[in-house]
Amino acid sequence: MAKTTDHLGRPIVVVTGIGIITSLGVGRKDNWDALSAGRSGIHEIKRFPTDELKTRICGMVDFLGSSDKGPAALTYEMAETTAIEALSEAGLDGGDFGGPLFLAAPPVELSWRDRFDLYKMSAEDAGYRRLMAGAARPEAARYFETTQFGSIADRLADRFGTKGLPITLSTACASGATAIQLGVEAIRRGEADRALAIGTDGSATAEALIRFSLLSALSMRNDEPEKASRPFSKDRDGFVLAEGSATLVLESLESAGARGAEILGVLRGCGEKADDFHRTRSKPDGSPAIAAVRAALADSGLDDTGIDYVNAHGTSTPENDKMEHLSLSTVFGERMRSIPISSNKSMIGHTLSAAGAIEAAFSLITMREGVIPPTINYDNPDPAIELDVVPNVKRPADVRTVLSNSFGFGGQNACLVMAREPA
Predict the structure, then answer these.
(1) Does the annotation mark 43 as catalytic?
(2) Quick check: is 58 catalytic?
């Protein structure tokens, strides 16, 4: 019988199902075809007026039924849709999953449309008091769920028959990777044979654009949306806000083997490290990111020679790209110049809570397809960042292992090491 435990005697965790939605489309095939072709999903915003906004572009998901029904509705629909795809591929019952759910989702708040509706429900007062009076009316009960952080996970748990209390987490841009890590750890501890890890984010609202603009974090290349996200380029000027979702069905190798499931990849290692430097900025010396990469390598049983490709965090912000280069160069030394590294965000934008899960999914497909997606819009190399970014055109490659980075606001850093096959 094949070995089912890793170098530390823990159950080997594999992936048996993948589901994806981004601004490139719905489903794994459409997304991969577009991503590997170097096609951008970033476009002009049509969902709400942008006349007074500095940034008027986004990687929004505008083609689902809930796209115009507020962030909570869209966040749920994308999670449900990707979970259906992943469970179908895994060959599992879509209503009786039987394992825990770990959901990465954005913080919730009432949409402006809902706030106006509540305001109209009452004429008792003005301003905030009028809003609260409207919220107290019986007909306002339908808005309650949209303000509860765990409501989306509860609905997904009921929909798919997951086991135990569903976990909802928000660790900024690392959320999707953190959800996967929690699933891996639950299986390794023997608490479950399988777990559902979902990263989803439909919160590209006017408020979000304004907030990130105030941080000077967003690109303002409004005239050429598809060229706005340009990770590692000298003329990068900020990230592009986006929406999306990805679901991974995680399973112990023993469980997957017993039911004859196809193995799509292996989660070999997870590493995380908090950064206490600043609420949004990364520590200039890159030490927390360095520690997260090293922790993931140690957890996987690999050293710095064991990685074939890096799926970069690659946000296209001046500071974050510089910090990621510093951290990787510190860990991998001179070898980093020859390790291919590319950023999916150059095409899909930054999907925030969903990013770590989406990029993990693309990393697994990269290994299976033998093709590395490009970093598009790389026309002006930054001499201070010496990396092989797979510029502009996809590259055939025998990729056996991938490091996927997620370095988030608020000091959240999480890295995943994945392999094509069990060791």
Answers:
(1) no
(2) no
